[in-house]
Amino acid sequence: MTMERRNFLKLLGAGAAATASVGLAGYANAATSAGGKHKVVVIGGGYGGTIAARYIRMMDASIEVTLIERNDHYVSCPFSNLYLGGILPDLKSLTIKYDKLAKNHGIKVVQAEVTGIDAENHSVTTSKGVFQYDRLVVSPGVEFRTDEIKGYDQEVMPHAWKAGPQTVLLRKQLEAMKPGGTVVLSIPLAPFRCPPGPYERTSMIAMYLKQHKPGSKIIVLDANPDIVSKKGLFLKGWKKHYEGIIDYRPAKKVTEVDNKNMSVLIEGIDEIKGDVINIIPPQKAGHIAHVAGLVGPDGKWCPVNPTTFESTLHKDIHVIGDSSIAGAMPKSGYSANSEAKVCAANIVALMNGRETTEMSGVNTCYSFLSEKEAVSVTGVYQVNKEKNVIEAVPGSVGVSPDLSELEAVYAQSWVKNILNEMSS
Amino acid sequence: MRRKWSGMALALGALVMSAVAHAAPPSAEMLSNACGGCHGTNGASAGPSMPSLAGQNKDFFIDAMKKFKSGERPGTVMSRLAKGYSDEQVVAMAEFFAQQKPAPAAQKAAVDRAKVAKGKSVYNSACKRCHLENGKDFEEDTPVVAGQWLKYLQIQMAEFQSGARKMSEKKTEKVKSLTADDWDAVAHFYASQK
Ligand SMILES: Cc1cc2nc3c(=O)[nH]c(=O)nc-3n(C[C@H](O)[C@H](O)[C@H](O)COP(=O)(O)OP(=O)(O)OC[C@H]3O[C@@H](n4cnc5c(N)ncnc54)[C@H](O)[C@@H]3O)c2cc1C
Question: What is the value of pTM for the model shown?
């Protein structure tokens, strides 16, 4: 039934009454009697998924929205570096639940693992049964390409690049380290989630070492030829606060680890030892995106229409957040939030047979360099119609002129507001 | 007409088409939604330092964006973000936020009652002429300040006092005898208004 209804809706939007061919009219007839609500299923209750679900319901409460997430809560990656550094005592303020999304917006929240997507039949298979959709939103975040790091074991060398138990494990390892110890942090080749994130982490770990572990240092092995984001500001902050603590080494790609010896190998040769080793593995779209055939020829990320975020590979499936290829928009929580709203507005338009609206997006990423200083990078994004890609509006992209205490104050309110949007 | 054709193509199971050519330019809602990650859904900020935009005076809003863009008003992120929008887009967003229900901040704990009382008398003598109805109403390009987040008001007032954020000659004249405590008291007074 869902199939017919869906096609009928499209035809309605297309002014089918006047133009439908004989074959299509058959669908339309079948659907007229079906009636019922339009159905959207959203996979992933993180920065992208929660917002897509909430905004669809805010814009059109007649659409039935089901949000499927494997966990009963979500821990924010943004600000989790502040917990590692000791600015936040725990992850409580970064943890959200889904009860208010259900209560205030009538979203059906299902705690389940999504195991398959059948694009043909418009259904999603989960650990709690099968769900039909008219349109599907996929926002599963990232998966790690651990096969590119021989011997990798996240229980020994945590990534802490998905916040939660991994973040707590890394913090415990730092606390247990003896003074004068060495922390090794490995950064993968871009693109990865949160371009300034590894350098913020470097700053926060260095701050912790400076305050609590005298004589310790952090060796940063960056697979990239240089600092990927906010370079000038990070270098300035490191010089100001962490001289002699941070040993930054560009173009050092970790390819293998030795869990017993607590060491990493660069390009299979150079061996570097650490007391605590934080490996941020290279990344790709969330596992389910691969299973569902939403990943493009690069084998890593999902190509989408820049206006609707509809997959260019499967119709009626939209991919947002880290998994999508969103042109110039970086893989960040703010981007995922902004993309979700664009996607929601256009899903509602399509379901109501209205014209879609060109995207307008924003990104801002704050990074902390010390207890009281933060910096930001901003951008406003729109579609370049000739190239059909998302580009930054000239002049809107830029970084802070200097380390700023005021930005640290505003950043605290940013995280509060964006998490509030996701959970109220 | 073009939309009609694309709808048919989809229904027939053709490849997913580019919707760009058919899409309308960004609506006020599309533009404004992107601000919500910082300023809160529909401009109702959850605080404590991020300003609410819901119910803000349209003319003040337009003026503020212009001043961020030109650098006349100091901003951290807004000086950069404002450059991403055309004058028409700013007007559309100003209208969008002006129409949203004002969202007085839930900040009982932060507001000091003794300061509120003192602030009211400072308000009556030095601010009332322009910030009408205890800061709830406005004329011309005066912002709504009633129920704004305390921390934000304090930051802005500090910028007025340091000269980083400019005041009109009239306002400068009116507030010239105020002490830092007076300013802080009015901040508590404004923040306490619902
Ligand atoms: C240390 C760090 C710091 C960061 N700091 C910032 C910052 O300051 N600002 C910023 O903007 N961004 C920041 N980011 C980036 C931000 O976290 C991501 O870009 C953002 O989370 C992407 O949102 P998403 O919806 O794509 O994925 P996520 O937020 O990861 O959400 C995906 C959700 O989908 C669920 N899921 C996945 N697969 C399935 C399945 N098969 N079945 C059921 N559920 C599933 C997951 O459990 C998860 O809850 C940071 C990231 C890190 C690691």
Answer: 0.93
